[in-house]
Amino acid sequence: MARYRGPKSKVSRKFNEPIFGPSKALQKKAYPPGQHGRGRRRKQSEYAIQLAEKQKAKYIYGVLERQFSNLFDKASSKGGVTGEVLLQLLEARLDNTVFRLGIAPTRRAARQLVSHKHITVNGEVVNIPSFSLRVGDVIGVRERSKSLEAITESLAVYSNRKYPWLEWESSDMTGKVISVPERDLIPENINEQLIVELYSK
């Protein structure tokens, strides 16, 4: 399965945001990476700003170029505001939902849990991280995986994260998609309009 394998701290410093989760590098070096990182940076073009926003969204959700482009095409063909629909499609990915429910501490960890067949959807094992969930779908931890240390430790720390479009039942380790998230409920710092403008060129 293709995914970004490069240095995470450099990406976080590039956008000055904890893209892959908390980063000590941002605290130590609050400037972009590279030998000219501390120097005066020239003004970015409109295209560069739009491209950077798309790249940031791709890194945050762990999506590669072709997947992202396909999701944008899908969002464009649906009714509603294209940028908002795009984020809703990204949020509906199985790996992202596993992360949001607190079953995994990061999206990378969530992707691994899904790939290794620890996660079920509506009672059936699903090992495709990009699987798109719908309202009413029930996400659970496979019975024999419920005692997995990585999962129990993550739930102990992160299961208190609450999102209005998700419902978590700790007694049987299941979560349910109860609605499609509105834009103001999605916490990611992404200017989706810039992405729409980029693809509209």
Describe this structure in a few short sentences.
This protein has helices at residues 8-15, 24-28, 46-61, 65-77, 82-91, 94-100, 107-115, 149-158, 192-199, and strands spanning 119-121, 124-125, 138-141, 166-169, 174-177. It is of the alpha+beta class.
Architecture overview:
- The chain is of the alpha+beta class and 201 residues long.
- It has two domains: 8-32 and 43-89 and 187-199, Ribosomal protein S4/S9, N-terminal domain (Ribosomal Protein S4 Delta 41, Chain A, domain 1, Orthogonal Bundle), CATH 1.10.1050; 93-179, RNA-binding S4 domain (Structural Genomics Hypothetical 15.5 Kd Protein In mrcA-pckA Intergenic Region, Chain A, Roll), CATH 3.10.290.
- Helix content is 43%, strand content 8%.
- The protein has a five-stranded antiparallel β-sheet with strand order 2-1-3-5-4, covered by helices on one side.
- α5 (82-91) packs across α9 (192-199).
- The longest helix is centred in the first third of the chain and has 16 residues, at 46-61.
Characteristic terms for this protein:
5 strands, 2 domains, Ribosomal Protein S4 Delta 41, Chain A, domain 1, single chain, alpha+beta, Structural Genomics Hypothetical 15.5 Kd Protein In mrcA-pckA Intergenic Region, Chain A, 201 residues
The percentage helix is 40-55%
Query: Helices and strands, in N-to-C order?
Result: HHHHHHHEEEHEEH
What is the CATH homologous superfamily assignment of the largest domain?
RNA-binding S4 domain
How much β-strand is present in the residues? 5-15%
In the CATH hierarchy, the third-tier topology of the largest domain is known as Structural Genomics Hypothetical 15.5 Kd Protein In mrcA-pckA Intergenic Region, Chain A
Largest sheet: 5 strands, antiparallel
**Annotated CATH architecture of the largest domain:** Roll
Helix segment tally = 9
Total domain modules: 2
**Rg on CA atoms, Å:** 18 Å
Distance between the termini: 30 Å
The strand count comes to 5
Globally, the shape reads globular
Report strand order across the widest sheet: 2-1-3-5-4
Poorly predicted regions: none
Protein structure class: alpha+beta
Q: Determine and state the CATH class of the largest domain.
A: Alpha Beta
User: What's the overall average pLDDT, rounded?
Assistant: 87
